[in-house]
């Protein structure tokens, strides 16, 4: 496993020994960095996703016995059963990180040129999936635990050519805030962490990179602090992590 990445804003390293965190989308560009960061801070991590080969490659690359992998499809009919089975073996969970997104197969197109099926597919992959994951994991997360979604800046701004992704980002932000208000301090805490541009292996392989962008392991450091209860943003549902140097910042709670 790689050495711990410590951002300059991380003044205290959270101790996650004895805690179990699920990272949905753990083999993705952002998810892998989160997985590595949580492991480096002592957590047992369950990386889930739809692609068994990518999960197996992650497991081999990380080489850490505290990493477990599980194939879970957020929109499959057996989601609840798979989550319940996982919880029976390894739960209740101290943290659940939702890091899923899909651009679809339709390419970048103006929104009103999408077919009904393309529209439905985008919403199922980016909005319904988050709703179903929240619903499935809430009952098996510890009352003192944390459930959060890693989202993108499209939650707050127009995204020409990718309206389905942007609309879903805005909707899941609203969904998270609503659930947090409904929970009202009872049971797991819900957070929405909106990210700036992230350096990923896929972008780097395509020759697209900028050292000013966020690293997945830096994002994982913030996730670890939320799970451990050491973050100064524990009372803030919507958080922004868009500037590498400034680190995570609180977002407005009301408009």
From TrEMBL:
PANTHER family: DIHYDROANTICAPSIN 7-DEHYDROGENASE. The keyword Oxidoreductase applies. Transmembrane segments: none annotated. GO terms for molecular function: D-xylose 1-dehydrogenase (NAD+) activity. Keywords: Oxidoreductase. It holds the Pfam family adh_short. Its EC number is 1.1.1.175. This is D-xylose 1-dehydrogenase. The gene is xylB. Belongs to the short-chain dehydrogenases/reductases (SDR) family. InterPro entries: NAD(P)-bd_dom_sf, SDR_DHRS6-like, SDR_fam.
């Amino acid at each position: 496993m790689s050495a711990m990445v410590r951002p300059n804003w991380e003044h205290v390293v959270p101790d996650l020994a004895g805690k179990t965190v699920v990272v949905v989308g753990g083999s993705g560009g952002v998810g892998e960095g989160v997985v590595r960061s949580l492991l480096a801070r002592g957590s047992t991590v369950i990386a889930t996703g739809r692609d068994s080969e990518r999960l197996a490659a992650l497991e081999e690359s990380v080489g850490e016995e505290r990493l477990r992998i599980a194939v879970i499809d957020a929109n499959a009919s057996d989601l609840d059963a798979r989550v319940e089975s996982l919880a029976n073996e390894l739960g209740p969970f101290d943290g659940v990180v939702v890091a899923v997104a899909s651009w679809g197969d339709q390419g970048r197109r103006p929104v009103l040129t999408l077919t009904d099926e393309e529209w439905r597919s985008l919403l199922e992959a980016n909005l319904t999936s988050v709703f179903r994951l929240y619903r499935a994991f809430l009952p098996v997360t510890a009352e003192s635990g944390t459930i959060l979604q890693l989202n993108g800046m499209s939650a707050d701004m127009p995204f020409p050519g990718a309206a389905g992704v942007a609309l879903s980002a805005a909707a899941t932000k609203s969904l998270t805030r609503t659930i947090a208000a409904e929970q009202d301090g009872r049971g797991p805490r819900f957070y929405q962490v909106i990210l700036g541009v992230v350096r990923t292996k896929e972008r780097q392989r395509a020759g697209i990179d900028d050292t000013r962008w966020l690293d997945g392991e830096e994002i994982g450091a913030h996730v670890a602090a939320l799970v451990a209860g050491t973050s100064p943003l524990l009372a803030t549902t919507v958080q922004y992590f868009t500037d590498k140097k400034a680190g995570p910042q609180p977002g407005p709670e009301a408009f």
